[in-house]
Here is the input.
Amino acid sequence: MTTNEKQLGKLDGKVALITGDNSGIGLATAKRFVNEGAYVFITGRRKSELDVAVKEIGKNVAAVQGDVAKLDDLDRLFAQIKKGKGKLDILFANAGIAKDAPLGTSTEELFDGGVAQA
Here is the structure.
């Protein structure tokens, strides 16, 4: 490769959304996506933790505070992505919370109350 050639990242030009990425797998994924060339939107419920994550990621990232379990927050999130980048190529649904129930006894209410909590 000559000095005038650019090595393209696997995600150059892509726009990604990662939910629940204040720490752990989500934060590591956001960093990796940015390093591979993507612009990443991150979301979570706690602004202070989002601010820390944005600082840690460092570039090509925008944080949108909200709860992915709330439809109004999702509408606002996708409106911001559309306004900011006009498209979304990658969705990494990382947000979640586990609620235990013995096998065969889980209910729809338990499921609905236990998903999408970042």
About this structure: The radius of gyration is 16 Å. The first strand starts at residue 15 and ends at 19.
